[in-house]
Model the fold of this input.
Amino acid sequence: MSRPRAPRLPSWLPIDPYILALLGTVGLAALLPASGAAAEVAGGASTGAVALLFFLYGARLSTREALDGLRHWRLHLTVLAATFVVFPLLGLAGRVLEPAVLTPALYSGLLFLCLVPSTIQSSIAFTSMARGNVPAAICAGSFSSLAGIVLTPLLAALLLGGAAGGFSAGSLLRIVLQLLVPFLAGQLLRRFVSGFLVRNKKVLGYVDRGSILLVVYTAFSEGMNAGVWHQVTPVRLGALLVVEAVLLAAMLTLTWFGAKRLGFGRADRVAIQFAGSKKSLAAGLPMAAVLFGAQASLAVLPLMLFHQMQLMVCAVIARRRAYHAERDVPDTPAPKAPGRRTPAVARPR
Done:
């Protein structure tokens, strides 16, 4: 007698285990928020974790690969424009939703989401799955992450104003010390530490994710202590999900058909769509902790939801692109030749 198989999630529905860990961390912060001396210790550890994260980002980014990728500059400029121009413009257009649909805090988080750089790992994975230009996706994600070190804080200071702590000498110094200096140190020391990073890739992966979990716990603890979660209701959360679904659909459509209008081939269009439509949770969470302070818990909520949504939707699209590529079927219907009529085909009865 055969044993019954355990139920499995559909392959097109990738529930990221790390998202579950993030949600568990949020639940822990809601039940046992750090306060008093524990909050000071957690805050100091979170600051160190952010610096460590950006040091590792700098040490892992291959300067040679980035320079080699400059040959495909039109593609990279297209991805950068989608990430740091089109996304922010759509975010600014969403201001009409405040306060009727989204609270000011949730809208600030939505706009911050639009300023975050693109992902690297998932852009590469989905581009590879869809038979796209993988080297271009690697370089495009790397360029976006590199540009985001500078552009995301500056755009946040310009567009979010007081919601992100305002643009002052103190906030600029904090951004430089916690984000830019560790990143540049990682780049300078890369030749000395790259071997160690490769040998301990798995362990350092846990360090990366554990550091982000610490940042999330600290941010949500501060939010609980400040009482910011009283501003969120289930109706507001549902509205946020709808808004983010529309935002993701708009970016997926614009990057795919916009790249076609710009004359890119299919493989390049795949890389542009996946690199230009997604946002990095790993880069956005520590940046929000630096920029928003006690308000970071609500600021990162839209990004966390958008991250899982983009994984689920892009997995479906990548499989569809792969299906079409394997069968040499165009992803969009070919236009009919003018002046020729399609012969009628009798319908089966």
Confidence is low (pLDDT under 50) at residues 1-13, 334-349. The two ends are 44 Å apart (CA to CA). The longest helix spans residues 296-326.
